[in-house]
Amino acid sequence: MQRTPFLALILASALPVLELQSVAMDDEDENDLFRQPVRELDDRIQQERLTESELPPLQHEVVLPKPPEHRIATDPDDVPISEEHWERANDAIERGLRWLLQSQDESGGWMTGVRTVPTDEPDRPSPIAVAVTALAVKAIVQADPDALQRDQRVWNALRFIRQTQRDDGSFEGGALTNYVTSSVVMAMASLDDPDFQDNIQDAVRWLQSNQWYQEQGVRPEHDWFGGAGYGGHGRPDMSNTQMMLDALYDAGMSPDEPAFQRALAFLSRAQNLSETNLSEWAGDDGGFIYTPAGGGESMASEAAGEGRRGELIPAGEPRSLRSYGSMTYAGFKSMMYAGLSADDVRVRAAFDWVRRHWTFDENPGMGLQGLFYYFHTMARALNVAQQHVIEDIDGLSRNWREEMIDAIIERQDEGGSWRNEADRWLEGEQVMATVYALLSLEEAIKPVAMVE
Question: Does domain 6-41+66-289+322-444 have CATH number 1.50.10.20?
Answer without folding.
Answer: yes
